[in-house]
Amino acid sequence: MGLTRRHFIASSAAMVATASALTVRQTFAVDRKIELIAGPTRIKLAGEAAASSDLWAYNASSPGPQIRVGRGERVQVRLINNLPEPTSIHWHGIRIDNAMDGVSGLTQAAVAPGDVFDYDFVVPDAGTYWYHAHNKSWDQVARGLYGPLIVEEEVPVFEPGHDLVLVLDDWRLDNSGALDLESLGSLMDWSHAGRLGNWLTVNGQDVPKFKLTAGEPYRIRLINACNARILAIDPARFDARIIAYDGQMLAAPEAPPDGQLLIGPAQRVDLLVVPSSKVDFALEEISGDPFVMAAFEVTEGSDQAPDILHFVTNDLPQPNLAAARLIRLDMTGGAMGRMGQITYKGKVLSGQDFRDTGQLWAFNNVANLAEAPLFAASRGETIVLNVHNDTAFAHAMHTHGHHFRIIERQGVKIDGTSPWHDTFLIASGETAKIAFVCDNPGKWLLHCHMLEHAAAGMNTWFEVL
Ligand code: C2O
Ligand code: CU
Q1: Which of 5, 201, 322, 437 is deepest in the core (most CB within 10 A)?
Q2: How many Cα neighbours within 13 Å face the side chain of 216?
Q3: Which atom of ligand 1 is nearest to the CA of 132?
Q4: Residue of the nearest CA to atom 1 in ligand 1?
């Protein structure tokens, strides 16, 4: 499904005018206690002329409030569930205490309607993270239950007004301009690329405008909150450099790859931009015809050279490849995919019997969570996952509680150190090896972040003892 403004071109023009000088919401958690009320709300996603959408959101806004804390701080969030169904919150990318990971059915019971749950955890690493519902995520995230979670460095690298958070989401709207709820759970989406939208928002808005001053350094934090869409951008078009992936700061800013930088669902990319002149620029999605997501208006500044920025990396455990244990992960299923005998809920099924379960994908011929983990690691053990994508689609693999390095792609070793990630893209037919130290005890999910794929089988878990 392509992104188009076909139906909403007039209303979007109006939105641009009113969305100027959007400043980022900041919820500095002064007393460290934050209340997130998950509940239904009505929001016009596509301008005043369009119909209202029935969303589910935190504190009646999607994205939910920006949670911004300092590295090493304790975060206390009370989730109040005003939804008509159970929910939970996952703090994506945080190397968190397992009991606070928010995975209903694995690390906690889902929070029933009317109930509350107190999350209480410490954030060990600075960076760009996000939070989202983790019960029926394919449905609850598509309805708007997510928000940004920013952990600041001890010594802030950028001035407060120079740290922009852009949460990107594609919504599927119907012809009235309202969120299309009927197509939630569509077999077509689940068996193909997942639920793709036709309307893109940044911080819930259509082409928000940001005002920048020439000569000053800005950090632009991009968070892909789409259920399944891989976003392609070209930061070189506005001379941006990459300073972080998935929350983890690079040792020094890097030039973006030639052509396209792909941002898979749940991935984050932090850019460094120093607008050099009074030339406005746009952040565009370029997988099809260039599509403007956000506009940046540059005003004249001083010609003083900006201060040197000091980038501080987080201290993550280095994989010990010499002593690593290799775990194979074969991805199968989906439309046009191979499917043999699959184990689901302890039963070995094939053909129609398997299709009747509603599951469509598998890891190592097991659909969804089995009783036994994919592997159990002793604390401190390095695991290398050897991932083979034997399906017709790309996937966005996410490890809970752990960041990894990609050490091999298509059989070719990656020399030196590659960036840390908590989610990586693997194209159809591709192989990749990722390495990480299992240093955080508990039960952790490993799943495709194309949320329909996860719901339909691409979901497993591992245990750190
Ligand atoms: Cu961002 Cu298991 O999720
Ligand atoms: Cu997938």
Answers
A1: 201
A2: 18
A3: 1
A4: 92
Q: How far is CA 115 from the centre of its chain?
A: 26
Average pLDDT over residues 303-326: 89
| Structure token pair of residue 220 | 């632009």
Q: Dihedrals φ, ψ of 12, to 5°?
A: -70, -35
CA 321 to chain centre: 28
Rounded CA separation 78/159 (Å) = 30
Fold of 22-157: Immunoglobulin-like (2.60.40)
Task: Quick: pLDDT tens for 428-445.
Answer: 999 999 999 999 999 999
pLDDT digits 0-9 by tens, 259-288: 999 999 999 999 999 998 878 999 999 999
Predicted confidence (pLDDT) per residue in 379-411, tens digit? 999 999 999 999 999 999 999 999 999 999 999
Q: Between the CA atoms of 171, 174, 178 and 184, what dihedral angle is there, to the nearest 10 degrees?
A: -60
Tell which atom from ligand 1 comes closest to the C-alpha of 423.
Answer: 1
Q: Output the CA 334–ligand 2 centroid distance in Å.
A: 9
Single pTM value for the model: 0.94
Residues carrying CATH 2.60.40.420, the chain: 22-157, 321-464
What's the full length of the chain, in residues? Answer: 465
**Rounded Cα distance, 289 and 402, in Å:** 36
Ligand closest to 146 (CA) is 1
CA 103 to ligand 1: nearest atom: 2
CATH numeric code, 321-464: 2.60.40.420
